[in-house]
Amino acid sequence: MELEPLADLIGETGRIREVREALHCLGPLDTTVLVTGETGAGKGVCARLLHRLSARSGAFVHADCASLAPTLLESELFGHERGAFTGAVVRRAGRLERAAAGTLFLDEIGELERPQQARLLSVLEERRFERLGGAGPLALTARVVAATSRDLAEEVRRGRFRADLYYRIAVARIELPPLRERRADVPLLAKAGLRAIAGRLGLAPPRLSEEALARLVVCSWPGNVRELFNALERLTIRRAGRAVTLADLEDAIGDPIGEPPSRFHGAGSPHRQIAEALRESEGNVARAARDLGIPRSTLRRRIARLGASAPGSALAGRGDSFEDHQSQGDQGEHRLVETNEPTAGEDRSGSSPRKGSLSLTVPSRRSHMPGCVSWGQATGRSDSRGGGSE
Q1: Confidence of residue 266 (pLDDT cuts 50, 70, 90)
Q2: What's the rounded Cα separation, in Å, for the pair 49 and 43?
């Protein structure tokens, strides 16, 4: 089995490592897989990796269920014979047929209407289909991988998605975390993305400053990896081969897609912003970093570099800077409090994986529906549980 494709799934946080483990396990298996996650999280990348890691010799065929009109869906998926309907002037193979011995990727399957869901369920159960106007059935030899940004278990409960189809496609399930839940992967994604984008455009990649990279980390990225890469492409076009400052980055990404600017931006110089944040947090570095919208490690470096006072601490009122206080050798007595609270840009998922981040399930634990077979996250083992939810 080819393992190199897993490098396409960039990241080293615990949750993304679990996704890679699932791909490694499921790739060679001839089973249906449901990939879930927000828009832009990388569902298409996972589907292609499952195909590349398999032993299938056929093509990878993509079908975007959200863009196919209900009247055209059957023709697109199943194909048609000449004369099957007005305008069918030639025989045409559908996507199920073109994916023979390969993989059919049903993207955004949650957008199918109920009649189309019933038709697809019949095909998946019988492993046969017919072209429109055809005289006989054809065997379904493609592996089916489906993806959705919807919570299909909730759609089932609301009566908008067939439960029997859900169980049919959710034999195994991979849930991709949103980018905001794996912020520690952003620097790796940004550097790899800049290299790839610059190479594709034939430009020299821009050079990100420390402040610019920290800003990327704390952005909310509602469009996830796709939105990040779009911002990086704009940045490459504007600043190819040149250093990127925080101002350059803000111009490229814009405020609407990122976290709102820190409320301390109006305080003036960086020294004053840090001093004000520390004053309000009573010297708590973690809280001040979160309020400023920067990683805690970045705030520590800036405190040392700027020589900022630490109001609200043992340093306050003496005029001592954090840097001066450390140089006196009594680091154990300062009151710049550090807590274990996660701050912007820090990811703790590697040490304590979030429950439900990845499951091999019919359906997932998160859906609270019966028949659960879940991937053991802490040990990588498979735990089987029948009956109800936990």
Answers
A1: low
A2: 10
pLDDT at 267: 54
Q: What's the CATH number where 148 sits?
A: 3.40.50.300
The model scores a pTM over 0.85: no
What are the pLDDT digits (tens) for 85-139? 777 778 888 899 999 999 999 999 999 999 999 999 999 999 998 887 777 888 9
Residue 339 falls within a domain, yes or no? no
For residue 347, the Cα-to-chain-centroid distance in whole angstroms is 14
Domain span including residue 44: 4-177+357-385
The CATH number linked to 205 is: 1.10.8.60
For 185, counting Cβ atoms within 10 Å of its Cβ (0-12 exposed, 13-18 middle, 19+ buried), the class is buried
Q: How many CB atoms lie within 10 A of CB 136?
A: 7
Is residue 143 domain-shared with residue 41, that is, in the same domain?
Answer: yes
Structure tokens at 365: 């634990």
Q: At what angle do helices 285-292 and 296-306 cross, to 10 degrees?
A: 100
Between CA 42 and CA 224 the distance in angstroms is 8
Q: How far apart are CA 375 and CA 382, in angstroms?
A: 5
Q: For residues 304 and 323, is the Cβ–Cβ distance under 8 A?
A: yes
More confident residue, 234 or 4: 234
Any idea how long the chain is? 390
70 has pLDDT over 70: yes
Q: Which two tokens stand for residue 369?
A: 């529906």
Between the alpha carbon of residue 80 and those of residues 67, 112, 315, 359, the distances in Å are 19, 20, 79, 38
Distance CA 47, CA 28 (A): 13
Q: How far apart are CA 39 and CA 183, in angstroms?
A: 17
Report residue 322 as tokens: 């954090």
Residues 32 and 165 in one domain: yes
The C-alpha torsion from 144 through 150 and 151 to 153, rounded to 10°, is -50
The one-character DSSP state at 337 is: B
